[in-house]
Specification:
about 325 residues
Length: about 325
């Protein structure tokens, strides 16, 4: 099966080639990325433990003291809660970094395919090529900051308008929801910007941001259709994968709700270990369920670039 990158394709062709490249080279991608996927899974499990066990338990304790027992909140509990919130923000940051670096191990191989139209299987299972990981991380950061700029401007504008018209809160909420939807749709070309940046190592991010975004915007319909179908497929599989995690989290929340009403926790002693293992396995599997999206974006980038080059030749 031919996996040439620079070829004009429909959204069906892009999805087909992306999935084909992933499944036909799965062992290669697994061998290149599994170490970072393990690190990602550990961070994912730690974050889930905080969100489903630690923070709900502390919240239930605080609510029981203040609402049920009618006592003042103890400084120890307040300190534990603030520390847990701080650790949560730190883990979210680590989660994003681990995700970017895991993607970077795959981008290493896609860059090789971009340059040579071939990919070599890593010689050892215990080696990580860091050639593109740093550039991928920078691409993640720059894309996030670029998307956040209009979001922050919108937040400032809404705060100012709410100050002068506080009675129109519901109207502002509807306007914000609509604006966020529009901003989300307008952010789709940033996928092309990201792939263009990581594949063209000789150029800086901001020197090509305007031209890359404009090029992606011209192909907005192609990007939207491709990502809509791809994300639907991946979200169904990810939802199935996350069912055990959701069930465990619901069990923890229900237990804390019962504790708030005066019932014993009723959770077995091994539940913490079982939860961590479940969250870890879910995080690791999610990496490889979501990875085909990267290949699809890669071939979408190649299709858009080819179309633009062919168009420029015809204009000449």
């Amino acid at each position: 099966m031919e996996y040439a990158l620079f070829k004009s394709r429909s959204y069906r062709g892009v999805i087909s080639k992306g999935l084909g490249l992933y499944f036909s080279h799965f062992r290669l991608f697994l061998k290149a990325s599994w170490l970072m996927a393990v690190i990602f899974a550990v961070v994912f499990a730690a974050l889930e433990m905080l969100l489903s066990i630690q923070l709900p338990a502390l919240s239930a304790t605080i609510m029981k003291q203040e609402l049920v027992l009618k006592t003042e909140l103890s400084p120890e509990i307040a300190q534990q809660y603030l520390e847990s919130v701080g650790i949560t923000f730190l883990l979210v940051l680590l989660f994003m970094i681990a995700e970017a670096l895991t993607v970077g191990t795959v981008v290493n191989k896609l860059k090789e395919h971009h340059d040579t139209n071939t990919m070599t299987v890593p010689k050892r299972w215990f080696s990580i090529s860091r050639r593109m990981m740093g550039r991928t991380l920078k691409g993640y950061v720059f894309n996030t900051l670029t998307i956040l700029v209009p979001v922050l401007l919108l937040a400032v504008l809404v705060a100012v308008l709410h100050h002068f018209a506080p009675d129109a809160m519901m109207t502002w909420m509807i306007i914000v929801a609509l604006c966020c939807m529009v901003l989300g749709l307008m952010a789709l070309p940033m996928l092309f910007v990201f792939m263009k940046y990581v594949m063209n190592t000789g150029k800086s991010y901001f020197s090509q941001l305007g031209a890359s975004y404009a090029r992606g915007l011209r192909h907005w319909g192609h990007i939207f259709t491709t990502m809509l179908i791809s994300c639907l497929i991946v979200c169904v599989l990810a939802g199935i994968c996350c069912l055990p995690t959701a069930i465990l989290a619901q069990a923890h929340w229900t237990s804390q709700e019962g504790f708030l009403n005066g019932d014993p926790l009723g959770m077995p002693g091994y539940i913490t270990t079982l939860s961590f293992i479940t969250y870890f396995l879910t995080g690791f599997i999610l990496v490889y369920i979501c990875m085909p999206i990267l290949m699809i974006v890669y071939f979408m980038y190649g299709s858009i670039e080819t179309y633009e080059q062919e168009k420029n030749k015809l204009d000449i």
